[in-house]
Specification:
Length: about 140
């Protein structure tokens, strides 16, 4: 199973923000959309970075409440780890685990095509395992 399958199920919409917005703006977006990260993009839609809830917490911990006035670009992760639609669920789980990340932008032709979270990946993998388990039980019962 591939990342394309996850995107087919969950959709391809990705919440993005401009780098000049404040951390407060980003926190409002995250809360309103009930998500854990946003992709920071430029005027032409290129991926400039990613900002997660954890990034905001770290900024506030280091700089106090005034950090919420900082621009997103000051606290985003600029070196974004990405994946493509043809990567397998297993490859993606390994990337996310080794990199210690929870959100992974998906690119197609170097353009943003979606976003997957560790929750999306685990959910699909568990569903696949349940199907395999059921098939094994039926095979054993019929033998």
């Amino acid at each position: 199973m591939t990342i394309a399958r996850i995107l087919t199920i969950k959709g391809r919409d990705v919440v993005t923000a401009q780098p000049h917005l404040t951390l407060r703006d980003a926190a409002d977006i995250l809360c309103r959309k009930r998500i854990g990260a946003i992709v920071v993009s430029g005027d032409s839609g290129e991926v400039l970075g990613i900002l997660s809830e954890r990034d905001i917490v770290r900024a506030v911990s280091a700089g106090g409440g005034d950090a919420l006035k900082d621009q997103i670009s000051k606290h985003m992760t600029a070196k974004v780890i990405t994946t493509t639609e043809d990567h397998s669920i297993e490859e993606t789980m390994e990337t996310m685990t080794q990199s210690r990340i929870r959100h992974l932008p998906v690119l197609r032709d170097n353009r943003l095509a979606g976003m997957v979270s560790i929750g999306d990946v685990v959910k699909i993998r568990l569903e696949a395992m349940e199907v395999e388990h059921k098939a094994m039980r039926e095979y054993i019962a019929s033998a």
